[in-house]
């Protein structure tokens, strides 16, 4: 498929709705995983990235991953100093 979603005028609204769906399913997978919960969350990231490239575009996925990495690094720095 490989369609860029970055130029979608309703991106924020659609992304928020999609995030709610994804979050619901992630929580169900985590509950099902039990003691494997940490592994399930990491595997879901990889599965989502692989599917994201197929559904959107490489640039969309790369941009989102960079934003997420920056958020994770900022959170880690705040927690280390806080």
Structure in words:
With 82 residues, the protein is an all-alpha fold. The chain has a domain at 34-82. Helix content is 80%, strand content 0%. It is built from three helices and no strands. It has helices spanning 11-33, 37-55, 58-81. Helix 1 runs antiparallel to helix 2 (37-55). The longest helix is centred in the C-terminal third of the chain and has 24 residues, at 58-81. The termini are far apart. The model has no long low-confidence stretch (mean pLDDT 90).
* Number of extended strands: 0
Radius of gyration: 15 Å
Helix percent reads: over 70%
Average residue-wise pLDDT? 90
- Continuous helix count: 3
Strand pairing plus helix content: what structural class?
mainly alpha
Shape: globular
Instruction: For the record, give the distance between the C-alpha atoms at the N and C termini, rounded to a whole number.
Output: 44 Å
Order of SSEs:
HHH
Amount of beta strand: under 5%
- Tell me the major beta sheet: none
Low-confidence stretches: none
Keywords:
82 residues; mainly alpha; 3 helices; 80% helix; 0% strand; globular
What's the short version?
With about 80 residues, the chain is an all-alpha fold.
Please give the structural blueprint.
Blueprint: H1 11-33, H2 37-55, H3 58-81
Helix pairs in contact: 1-2
